[in-house]
Request: fold
Amino acid sequence: MAMAYASDGHITEWHTEGYTASQGRKIQMKITAFGTLSIYCVNLQRIGWSWSHGLQVVPRPTQSRCDFLISTLIHFFKCVVLVNHVHWAVQWFGPTTIGSPQGGTIYPSLLDLLRSIILISLAGSSIYFIWETAYDFFVLIGVGVFNQHPLQWPPLLDPPWLSSSLTELWARRWH
Reply:
């Protein structure tokens, strides 16, 4: 199997000589899936790629490694506390009929709809804080243990709830 690369490094053509059509498609899907996973699991902000030019990265205190580690550790513990509180709130707002033999009604009341909206908001907040917590954990390992430079670890997200438009959310605050 051979692949042709364009000048920007992207694969432009697939050649799967010697394989049946279905085998060639399976190989292409595996390679595409692996490439996609490597992009999103290793380099979430896609820094260094040609389409990340103009990316606005929120600065962190990187003057000294010690200040950077302390601020990251404080942020890590704040996120851990917030994840625990959001998890508790989700459990508290959760429906009482789940797992009971009586079950519940399929016709929700206005109070049930309000509870659903609160649960969805809390679940989204939980995902945000879990990402931040995991990223801070890896920042602490990368900078503290593997002696990487703090500039190699920009903030993962700028607070998305401060966005005034969808353009600002996707262009600046989410990545």
